[in-house]
Structure to design on (551 residues):
């Protein structure tokens, strides 16, 4: 895994837009165009069974304009993480959804409520096991193939066979498909199946149109992938037979840029139209500045510390509590992300029904002197006068790992400084991704950021992070009481009871400081004030839409 220094800049999102054309999203356009996508210089196989012409209803004016070569829509260049758009690809399943290539059956509104997307109607049986879903009529894949129940079945089963988190959360026993009617039966009652079907891993792909490497690149979104160069760029063409209307931009380029300072300067100089993923120090350059605007949203993304509970020092509850006491949440939220953080002890934002910070009596406030005293009381002392604590003859030396997401390197440096004040030696290693090291357990502390309500409900996060067999349980946490509560939460349909269970689980896990939550993040995008249709979403899944353009 490629390493970078702690000061190295993270992957950045930059987008360059030009003026919207005269035809905007709202009417269905004409021909779908080429289906081919070049992956690292290789062209995938042609879509199987794709019709030669488009099958959707067309807007006559839009069609005639395109045929006459007078399409005045603009190109659109967006900087974001450049990766595989395949929803089954793992940790970066959200790439396809952010870029407007993939869509899921359901989606979230701005308040994290589930709403129908590719679905017309749905219902659940009295026993909570069988979900009947009626698909929206007339939806096409970018290949031209129809999105019917058989296609959706193939997509979901493929993802579950490749993505362990999807298989665990969807918990599908069987899928029956007939026409546009899908019947999903789960192994046990799954009260949040529609929520899970909002997650990017549930993006619906055309399994008949996989590329030569077996990747799914064809979805139902307003833009279709035509070229992908790893770690450099992605090229997308408008899908004019998009069920939601003809896209306002005719082409989108996704570019990966690693230099945050350079991107801020480019936006200021007018070379770029908008940026996603800028540092929080740059926020003041554009917020309230003439000619620019920002879009910002409070999110459930929590910045936290994973402790490796299997290691000697971090396996000690008193040691972990002392470290939590050395974390200055208020200043971290104010300084490290330029005021865009909300300090927290709880896993979930205070505005949700799943948060109860008042009940977390065992989670300490910032108290550096108290932390020093606690360590001394439990046998951590500088016995040889070298400024580094030791216990039972072993120096207390820790390895912190993190990655480049804005605020994480800064949080890691702040933590390293706090540990130094306690007399704890600590090194920081910044990686492209901490996933492999986390699963392998080769770390002491991992400074990490996670969306705690990825499905608008607490179960997914709690199960994956706190469950004994959770896919993101990097700390190796295991508690029979918590596993039992998670089992109850998994099948509970009553929303009030679900909230109480979530709070009880959070309280139990944090009672011995097995994790240390620091702050929740407000995400933002900076852009010229002429940009339209680009809004920061609370779940950070939706960036490019059919409406995205510059007026």
């Amino acid at each position: 895994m490629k390493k970078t220094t702690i000061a190295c800049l993270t992957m950045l999102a930059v987008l360059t837009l030009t003026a919207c054309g005269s035809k905007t999203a709202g009417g269905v356009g004409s021909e779908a165009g080429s289906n081919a996508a070049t992956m690292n210089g290789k062209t995938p196989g042609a879509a199987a069974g794709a019709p030669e012409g488009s099958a959707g209803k067309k807007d006559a004016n839009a069609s005639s304009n395109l045929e006459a070569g007078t399409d005045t829509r603009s190109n659109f260049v967006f900087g974001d993480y450049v990766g595989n758009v395949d929803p089954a690809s793992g940790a970066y399943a959200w790439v396809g959804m952010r870029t407007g290539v993939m869509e899921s059956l359901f989606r979230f509104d701005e308040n994290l409520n589930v709403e129908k997307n590719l679905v017309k109607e749905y219902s659940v049986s009295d026993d909570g096991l069988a979900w009947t879903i009626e698909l929206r009529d007339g939806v096409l894949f970018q290949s031209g193939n129809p999105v019917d129940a058989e296609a959706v079945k193939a997509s979901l089963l493929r993802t579950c066979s490749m993505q362990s988190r999807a298989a665990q959360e969807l918990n599908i026993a069987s899928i029956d498909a007939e026409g546009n009617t899908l019947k999903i039966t789960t192994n046990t009652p799954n009260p949040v199946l529609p929520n899970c079907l909002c997650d990017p891993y549930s993006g619906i792909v055309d399994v008949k149109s996989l590329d030569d490497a077996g990747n799914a690149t064809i979805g139902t979104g307003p833009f279709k992938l035509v070229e992908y160069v790893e770690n450099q760029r992605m090229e997308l063409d408008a899908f004019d037979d998009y069920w939601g209307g003809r896209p306002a931009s005719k082409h989108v380029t996704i570019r990966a840029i690693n230099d945050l300072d350079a991107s801020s300067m480019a936006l200021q100089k007018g070379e770029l139209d908008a940026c996603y993923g800028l540092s929080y120090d740059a926020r003041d350059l554009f917020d309230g500045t003439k000619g620019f605007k920002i879009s910002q949203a409070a999110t459930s993304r929590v910045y936290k510390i994973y402790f490796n509970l299997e290691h000697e020092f971090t396996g000690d509850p008193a040691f972990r509590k002392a470290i939590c006491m050395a974390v200055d949440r208020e200043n971290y939220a104010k300084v490290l992300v330029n005021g865009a953080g909300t300090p927290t002890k709880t896993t979930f934002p205070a505005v949700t029904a799943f948060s109860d910070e008042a009940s977390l009596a065992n989670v300490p406030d910032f108290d550096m002197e108290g932390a020093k005293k606690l360590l001394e009381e439990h046998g951590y002392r500088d016995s040889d006068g070298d400024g580094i604590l030791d216990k039972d003859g072993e120096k207390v030396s820790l390895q912190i790992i993190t990655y480049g997401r804005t605020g994480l390197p800064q949080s890691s440096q702040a933590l390293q400084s706090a540990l130094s004040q306690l007399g704890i030696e600590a090194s920081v290693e910044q990686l492209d991704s901490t996933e492999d090291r986390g699963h392998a357990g080769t770390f002491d502390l991992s400074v990490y950021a996670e969306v705690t309500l990825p499905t608008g409900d607490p179960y997914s996060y709690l199960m994956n992070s706190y469950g004994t067999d959770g896919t993101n349980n990097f700390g190796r946490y295991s508690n029979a009481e918590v596993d039992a509560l998670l089992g109850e939460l998994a099948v509970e349909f009553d929303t009030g009871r679900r909230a109480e269970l979530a709070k009880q689980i959070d309280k139990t896990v944090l009672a011995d400081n097995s994790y240390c939550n620091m702050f929740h993040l407000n995400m933002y995008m900076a852009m010229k004030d002429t940009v339209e249709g680009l809004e920061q979403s609370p779940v950070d899944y939706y960036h490019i839409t059919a409406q995205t353009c510059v007026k």
